[in-house]
Amino acid sequence: MTLKFEKYVVQAKGLDMIDAILITPQDICFDIRAILKCRWGCDVFVQNSIRCHVRDTTYQERLEMVNNYNNILLLHSHDAHELSKAVINIERMAFLDGYYLAFGIRLCNLCEDCSVKKGHDCPTPLKVRPCDQSFGIDVYKTVRNLGLPCEVLQSKDDIQNRYGFVLLD
Ligand code: SF4
User: Which atom of ligand 1 is nearest to 117's Cα?
Assistant: First the structure.
């Protein structure tokens, strides 16, 4: 892993991320059952929301997209909104640094009050990034293998462990 990406770890900590770890595609556990759960278990998909559109890409294409990167930043937060903001901010920083293919993967929670959830258009559709589940990423297994927490929540008051990815180059 090259030191040149360590700056994004520092920047992520500055954006209040609990953890920020540089990984490779080999650290990501892909399992098509994540898509099974997405298609039949997620209200966002049932609503045909921009938050989970796959833009006419196939699962195989999405796998290939992720696997073509060499360096990925994994972000951990208890706050879905802060996490989405950090993902898009670091993607932008990396892009401006010359990593022109930098790209975030994270179910969009950029706005504290999402207008899409209320049936309205998204005011910033170009900032919406794809959901990790649509890429067949088993987040539980991926982060547990890296020593990070991720448990099935038993109540809405439980502390949430949310994760996002920034594909760097
Ligand atoms: S309204 Fe905000 S949170 Fe909702 S999809 Fe658009 S950018 Fe994301």
Answer: 4
Q: Which parts of 19-151 are beta strand (E)?
A: 19-23, 72-77, 103-105
Query: How far is Cα of residue 24 from the mean position of the Cα atoms in its chain?
Result: 14
CA of 137 to the centre of ligand 1 (A): 22
This prediction has a pTM of 0.95
What residues have CB less than 8 Å from 3, skipping those under 6 apart?
A: none
Cα(166)–Cα(5) distance, rounded to whole angstroms? Answer: 11
Cα gap 160→68, rounded to integer Å: 30
- Burial code of 122-159, b = ≥16 C-beta within 10 A, e = fewer? beeeebbbbbbbbbbbbbbebbeebebebeeeeeeeee
Helix axes 80-96, 6-14, angle to 10 degrees: 140
Task: Report which of residues 40 and 90 the model is more confident about.
Answer: 90
